[in-house]
Design goal:
The chain is mostly beta strands. It has 5 helices and 31 strands. A hairpin with a 7-residue loop joins β30 and β31.
Length: about 450
């Protein structure tokens, strides 16, 4: 059997459907199964699709990283395999060995759900939103057909709306799952309770580019990294995210974390961006051809401000404040001046080129109690203006429903050396567990500041 290789067709917004269809579109019918685990490998989850701390640049805090918690922290930066199961018919075949049935959650996993295999009372237990939420045991109890300490053949087959679970060629359980994409397939080994000796998928299944972690929730005392943005110069890309830490008293501390991605794919260690005393809430970034330009919205409980701060940097680390964009100044007309609100929110994204050639970011304003689209536009004299968004100023990034199987998050991308670097929030435990990046050929052009 040979591994499936697919051409990549990518677009600027990352949603689950695009990852499953655009990034993984197969060219023609595939006759050979996709190999997830080679026969006899005895795969470990980390080998299947893990992101080691060294790559994620995560530094578990001494307070939380004890010998017993390190495996759990490591699991927080582990993703599933890069094989995606769609909405159609498929068959998954795996050779598995379970040491015991003591409920350590050894499972066949998918996006948003799992089939538990080591429950003490049942051979199979469905768990997660993919299977309707909660847990649902299948069958009337555990039999001797799934033995402990002996390898057995597990098959999961969907034909139409019918899904069948088989062991050693014998159909044991059947349930209905119409028109649902299972997403990434993988394994939770139940703290070493299960070994996967081989696994293949055929039918409506495709491979995708493997994401890597730019920032991780397992990094020090940071609770989450949110609203990632990325932009590129001719030689490197700069990825940023807002790191948020909540103290026991409820107070919130924020900072901007950064990583440089080089044209060859290598990365710098994660670092704190050096700006003045402003507490960041939302950010937008670009390279204007000579320097990095950063817009920062300062934190407050309402997440609405009167002005956005503008910074510049030559090295992508130390940023100097060079101005601000006020939501109530420099109105284009008397009517707009009267309607202008002081409340605005910056959209976290890469800045783009305005039709006039200057830089532009996206924002929203509250006018007469209603949110309206706005643009933060650089003027020819270098100053910045917030005004109503014009029809020719298309939005290049938006809030997305899901990214890489995780809960809701934001996404942003940039082009570098013929590759599209797509960064997004994602994770299996929480919406902002990690900031992940997928590096794929930029077949579809991406609006970027050059």
């Amino acid at each position: 059997m040979t591994r499936l290789r697919n051409p990549v067709n990518t677009v600027i917004t990352i949603v689950r459907a695009l990852l499953m269809l655009s990034l993984c579109a197969a060219a023609g019918a595939q006759n050979a199964p996709i190999i997830i685990v080679e026969h006899g490998e005895g795969i470990d989850v980390a080998d299947l699709a893990g992101v080691p701390f060294t790559i994620a640049n995560a530094q578990p805090s001494e307070t939380h990283a004890t010998t017993s918690t390190l495996p759990q922290l490591q699991h927080r930066v582990v993703q599933h395999s890069t094989v995606l199961i769609g909405r159609g018919d498929f068959r998954l075949d795996a050779m598995i060995m379970l040491d015991r049935f003591d409920g350590r959650n050894a499972a066949l996993t998918f996006d948003g759900g799992a089939i538990l295999l080591d429950a003490p009372t049942h051979e199979f237990v469905l768990r997660g939103a993919l299977f309707g939420g909660g847990t649902e045991p299948l069958g009337i109890g555990r039999s001797a057909k799934v033995p402990a300490g002996v390898s057995f053949a597990l098959a999961l087959t969907r034909t139409g709306a019918s899904v069948v679970l088989s062991v050693n060629g014998e159909d044991l359980e059947k349930f209905t799952m119409p028109d649902l994409a299972l997403g990434r397939v993988g394994f939770d080994l139940g703290n070493g309770n299960m070994r996967v000796l081989s696994c293949t998928v055929e039918g409506d299944a495709q491979t995708a580019a493997r994401p890597f972690a730019l920032f991780s929730a397992a990094d020090g005392e940071v609770d989450e990294h949110r609203d990632p943005v990325i932009a590129a110069s001719n030689s490197e890309a700069l990825a940023l995210a807002v790191a948020v830490t909540t103290a026991p008293d409820g107070s919130v501390a924020t900072k901007i974390r950064a990583r440089t991605i080089n044209a060859d794919g290598t990365m710098s260690p994660a670092r704190d961006l050096i700006i003045d005393a402003v507490k960041p809430d939302f950010i937008a970034i670009a390279h204007d051809g000579s320097q990095w330009v950063l817009l920062v919205q300062e934190w407050n409980d309402a997440h609405l401000v009167e002005a956005v701060q503008v910074y510049a940097s030559n090295d992508g680390t130390r940023f100097q404040r060079i101005g601000e964009a006020q939501s109530k100044s420099r109105a284009q007309s008397q009517a707009e001046s009267q309607a202008m609100s002081q409340a605005m929110r910056l959209a976290p994204t890469a800045l783009v080129r305005h039709p006039s050639g200057t830089l532009m970011a996206y924002a929203s304003r509250v006018i007469d109690g209603a949110a309206q689209s706005a643009s933060v536009v650089q003027q020819s004299d270098g100053s910045w203006l917030v005004r109503e968004r014009h029809a020719d100023e298309n939005v290049a990034a938006k809030k997305v429903a899901a990214a890489w199987g995780g809960p809701a998050g934001t996404a942003c991308c940039a082009s570098l050396a013929g590759m599209s670097l797509q960064v997004f929030e994602g994770g299996d435990a929480s919406p902002r567990e990690h900031v992940l990046c997928v590096r794929v050929p930029a077949i579809v052009s991406v609006p970027a500041v050059k």
